[in-house]
Amino acid sequence: MDVHQPDLFLSIDGQLRFSDCPLITPSTPIADCFLAGGGTKTKVTIAAPSPSSLSPSVQILATGAHRSSNCSDLGIQFAVESIGHATLQALAKLPSHYPATSWTFHQPAPFMKIWAGLSGVDSQADVVAMKAALGELFGLGPQDEKVLVISNDCDLLSGSIEFHYRRSIEISSSYKPCDGGIVLIAGTGSIATAYVPSSFSAIDVPRESLLKVAGRVGGYGYLLGDEGSAFDVGRFTVKAVLEAADAGELEVKLDRPLSSTIANSTLLPALLDHFGVHHVDDLLGAVYRLNKSAGQTEHDRKVRLAEVSRVVMRCAYPGDPSVVGDQFALEVMAQTAKKLSVLLHEVCRIHNLKPERLVLCLGGGMWAYEAYKETVLRLTAESWGAEWGWVESVKEPDQVAATTLVRRQFSRPLNEFFTLARARLPFSGQKAQARGDRRVWAGVGHPKLDQQMKDDSLEYIVSTEHGNYSKPTSLELASPQKALSACQAKRQDLELIVSVGPNAIASHVLVALSTLESRRLIFGGSVARRVLVYLMGAKGQNFLLRAALATSHTYP
């Protein structure tokens, strides 16, 4: 019986402890492995394409978990140990019809693909170091260079963005435009990472991502940032209580971040209980206390403070609609939500992103309560007018990564969806040759795609002029902005070849094109039909359009 070989996806959150390496039971590749690693635990998912599904779908075979594998907090050795134990746990849970495996650390692991998205991996040096360490753990050799992929944990979640972006291309006539998205992680730490369309390096390589990282805001760790994270909630809450105690009345003054009375809050006794103390006077000592004889480290202290967020959210969002949340806890969460709104605003401002064309992908334990998500979204709308195109909450990033990889394997190459559509007005070959050096190609901003579409357009022009039209010796490759300038200059002798992709259909370019006095317009791109309809219906046209529209590819 053939068995689909699964991939391994690793998700990491938490602490780790050393233990003896257990022996499971054949060492042949069986699946893909996905690892997701955050600040609290490490999650491993073993997955394979579903053999019974006609459409791209994933079969989750087994999962495992261990403590944190954040290499910046714990070091590479501890991180690798945690990943190894989570992997062993997942292998032990494989269904009985899969071959038994006998794997120990540093032996060849039974995975065709391993994608590890790890918190604490913030630079190329981190990637190189973790790839070497995990390559040794999984027994990979030089021939296995493409088996293991290391990335930041945000990349695992970006599959949700890639899904909507691909759909906006494949069914552009009925799907609103998507320009990428933002992954906002609010777990033990926090970070906002923006993803935009790549330069189409993945056009002919379905397994490659269609997105690239535009930039990030935050993710500086608890010493320098982590605004809006679980750690930030814990720190903010404890500090507010201590300030109230120092004021002698357990009440935060109006000129401080909170204005509610803490003394009668249900959160106060819950907070003291979390740290195992009975009086506020003992709270500060409990926050800093470490049991070094038991092997506790600074990481344990950070996690203990981050876990205060669970106490706060339980008090703020009791779950019973008839019960009003604790006012102190609600104000703590409101302050935290404002910080996340600021992160999103900054990343949009820096990279000139429009929320209405973006996927907002939410990951991390802070999104466990729907009411908190609604608070953040409301603040982004009220404070800076954000209306998100899509909002996705991801509870299992490793499983999202598994689905993403399977979807890439079964997806058609993207260039099938950028078919050319042409609008042209015949004129004499002699005049065409005379104008051959005055053509401007307006691309979509993706070099590989633009070059391909330009070549296809020229081939079409030559083949349809019955031998009377020679290929121009030069053709300027222009951006949409340059095309707009040419339109505004109203060069009547200009032939404009326009490529309109799903993300280059700016309204100002369309307006300029609608008044262009041109003899020939050639449109390429998945939205070409829509653009031609727009131009043919525009007023003030002094040229005719005759469309030769290519049949659009559809995606099931």
Automatic annotation (TrEMBL):
It comes from the Eukaryota. This is N-acetylglucosamine kinase. It comes from Cronartium quercuum f. sp. fusiforme G11. The lineage of its organism: Eukaryota, Fungi, Dikarya, Basidiomycota, Pucciniomycotina.
